[in-house]
Amino acid sequence: MTDTTLLLQATALGPSPTPWPCIDPFLFCVHHHDAYPRGDGRLGPDASLAGRSIGQDFAGLDGWNLYHGERIPGFPAHPHRGFETVTVVRQGLIDHADSLGAAARFGAGDVQWLTAGRGIVHAEMFPLLRTDRDNPLELFQIWLNLPARRKMAEPHFTMLWSDQIPDVTHHDAEGRATTVRHAAGRLGAGEARPPAPPPDSWAAEPDADLVIATIRMAPHARWTLPAAAAATTQRMLYTVTPGAIGVAGRHITQRVALQLRGDAAVELVNGDRPADLLLLQGRPIGEPVAQYGPFVMNSRAEIQQAFDDYQRTGFGGWPWPDGAPVHGAGAGRFARHVDGREEHRPEPPATPG
Asked: Which positions fall inside the Pirin C-terminal domain (predicted)?
């Protein structure tokens, strides 16, 4: 096949945190990459906040953003309905709190999967724990749609820890490595299987053919992305790092989103420096999408109902003392689930692929 039959579309990616183009069943994908400075001992930056639009700081001044945070970077309490958020953290830490009462601090290599379903409120704050050196943060947040029959499912909080997420390393004829890290699904029958997704997720459907994976290629490595299981599967491959890479015979020299044929294998040939890529694939849900801000339903009437329900119920209320809770300077990686069960993890390893 020629590259024009394998590579359906290429779209240049804007600077972080500009949202990336997505295809059904995915709604949204953003790459946050912030060069946060050392902390001030109160989990905020040891740096002047002058010149920033506090509460709406997305300008990337000095290479980082406060986002909607006022002193600590992040996203204070906000609602969702009708879809899922999948947060893949490559570097740094996130403090999670939600209206279910669940809480977590998770970091490099961990994945949080939150089914909003009929409605949830959560906060995602970025505590700057280290006071002796910088606190860089890198993550992907991905919004995965729910089919109509699952949009009003019970909310569900899931943590997938770094040591539970499988890596598969492939070597080309010259021994150069390509490592695929599977947050969801697998590529080919021989690939390792990650932990199960939440029960109401589209990813839990047996024929969804859904994959969320990061790919790290050594310089000059060659690897063939295998064909998806179904002819109807859609694929987007994002080149996360700048540099040259060959995809289906096409020479790529900028950060792009590549829509690929799902039912065909595609050869990737890296250039002269390490390359990071993100793969999102899945069978389309194929239903109408009505979206307004944090709500994604199938009709405008359902969107209006979501606003009415949130104003009336607060999706269960907010059991935290403020809208931007963080978990203290001494807390390590942990999760406290809705049923009271707690998990603790040691310090994360070096940034995974």
From this structure: 215-316
